[in-house]
Every structure is written in structure tokens, then in C-alpha cells.
């Protein structure tokens, strides 16, 4: 029986020797961080590396530079469609810049969020991207004081680097659309009071009502969670038979809330788009595929993700807070009052 030959990995030195170049020249030719050199020497080195089956150890290389080219992303939960979409965009944007993104979930508890952040930092990530959303969150302040590179997405505390949609403008666009259709009896279902998204979208809705000279019915300004069940409960409260008058239109501060309102409307024999107009927020893919397609405010997640990566990898951005313009997407769920 022939002796087994151990599978010895090909090293950078092997590639350099086989290519007839120095170790540093081989390293530069195989460095994937920038635009690859098109010189004949670099092309030869890459061809030899491929023939030998060389695989660059990027992790070890980056550790020598004090980097891992890895970014940690912290989200409340990946069962939330917007959070999942946001992470996918961050992952794509990171990859295009030569980084790898890993995700951790934290729920809504600040202590759990801090533990999740520390877990990511223990993995020696080069920076943190936070999609968590509490206004009273001390984590960004802690990261600033500890000089940890970070950026907030879909939210801002007004201090840490942030990339988000302009939620106040989005709330304004949603309610302005209903007002332009002729509605005045408009209810608003916002997210939790501890979220910057919920408070900003409500502020935009109130501004639109005020500009139109419509008196706000405070009983129709409801704060809820961001799930479908929360939207259903809020819809039941607004549409219960004993209440009079009832709203002819509802702005729900995310699409899950809007879908919950749709379910409540059905129980009260109301037809969305006819008896009751409805506008959601975020324009998740399901919105256009509902039995009554949902009018929604679209947020440019791709731009937000790209900017968040820039805020971390380019120190010249400083403490920039960048807001991107949302867009109203009208569909069948919003119609004129009967």
C-alpha cells in the first residue's frame, strides 16, 4: 500500500516561487481589496495561483493589519420583513466593498441589545450597524465613548452616524395623500412611543392635518406595536360599532399594521379602498400582492444600506446623519370617501 500523502495547503510562498517573483509582489497581485493589477506579472501570478489551487487566507491577512473586514449588524428580529430586507441590503453593500456582514438579534430589551452588541464585538468586527430602534437607547452613546466604529440604520439619535429614511416626510406624504383624496376623518396608528420611526411618522401626519386645517381627533391617534396583531387590535378599536363617527381613512405606520387593520375592517364588513381608505409604510414586497393592493410609503433601503457602510469604512464621514427621501406608492387601498 502506498503511503498517504498529506494534503498540504498551498502557501503564498509556493505561488511566489512558482511564479518567479518576490513574496511581496505575489501578495500585491493576489490582494482582492482594490482594483486588480492588469500587468503581465500580476496576470501570471494569478494564473499560477489558480493552477496550484492557492486559496488566500483573508482572515489571517486582515488580522495582521488589525482588521477582520467583518461588520456586525444588530436587528431586533429577522422575522420582521423590513429588518430582513435591511440586512440583505447591508450584506450586499458590504460585499461590494470587500466586507462580510454577520447579524445578531436583540429583541426590544436594552439589556439584550447590549449583550448582543458585545457578542459581535467579541468576534473582532470592524464596526457595528444598529437597526434597533429605542429612543432611550444608551448603546450608541456607549459605542461613541468607547470609540467603536458604528452607524445607525432606519433610526437616529441625532448624534451617532446614521442613515435612514426621512420618516417625518413619509408620514406627511401618507396623510397628505388621504387629504388630497378628500378625507378629513383620518386616524393614525403609529409604532411604539419608544421608536424614532413611530414618533417621526406621527409628527409628519400631524403636520399634514394641521396644514389642511383638520382638527386632530386624539382618540384616533393610537400607539401600537409594529406587528400584524397590533394593527388588528388598533383597527378593532377604531372601527368598533359603538364609536361614532368612525374614520374614513387610516394611516398605519408600517405595512404589518396596515395588514392588521385590513383584517379588522373585514370583520366590520368594510371594503378597503371603498368604505375605508388605508395607507401603510415601507412598501414591503407583499404590499402589492394583497387582495386589495396596499398604498404604501417606499423607503430606499439600498441607499440607506450603502450609506451606512460608508459611514463606517470612511472616517471622513464623521458624525453625519443622512436622511433619504421616501416615495408614496398609490394603490387600490386608498380611494375617495363615499
UniProtKB/TrEMBL annotation:
Domain HTH lacI-type positions: 10-65
Residue stretches in coiled coil: none
Transcription among keywords: yes
PANTHER family from the UniProt entry: HTH-TYPE TRANSCRIPTIONAL REPRESSOR PURR-RELATED, LACI-RELATED TRANSCRIPTIONAL REPRESSOR
TM region(s), chain numbering: none
Keyword vocabulary terms for this entry: DNA-binding, Repressor, Transcription, Transcription regulation
GO molecular function: DNA-binding transcription factor activity; transcription cis-regulatory region binding
Entries under Gene3D superfamilies matching the protein: 3.40.50.2300, lambda repressor-like DNA-binding domains
Domain of life, source organism: Bacteria
PROSITE patterns reported for this sequence: HTH_LACI_1, HTH_LACI_2
InterPro entries: HTH_LacI, LacI/GalR-like_sensor, Lambda_DNA-bd_dom_sf, Peripla_BP_I
Name this protein carries in UniProt: LacI family transcriptional regulator
